Amino acid sequence: MSIDRITALEETVAHQGKTIDELSDQLTEQWKIIDRMKRALESLGERLESMASVDAPAVTKPPHY
Q1: Distance from C-alpha of 40 to C-alpha of 21, rounded to nearest angstrom
Q2: What predicted TM-score, i.e. pTM, was given to this entire model?
Q3: How far is CA 27 from CA 19, 36, 39, in A?
Q4: CA–CA distance, 59 with 65 (Å, rounded to integer)
Q5: In the chain, what's the furthest Cα-to-Cα distance?
Q6: DSSP labels for 23-65?
Q7: Structure confidence by residue, pLDDT tens digits, 30-65
């Protein structure tokens, strides 16, 4: 193998390694966002359930009808 070919292969491997690291970082950030969204959804679900269990006032027509 020539020196130029080895250098080109080393550059390719270095770029791929950098790309893998960047993708890994993005994936980690996305999982953090997903976890936050899951917690928020669970919290909203609990609030909705608690609101549904509270007796709501009867719906009546306003006096001007």
Answers
A1: 29
A2: 0.64
A3: 12, 14, 19
A4: 13
A5: 94
A6: HHHHHHHHHHHHHHHHHHHHHHHHHHHHHHHSPPPPP---TT-
A7: 999 999 999 999 999 999 988 887 776 677 777 776
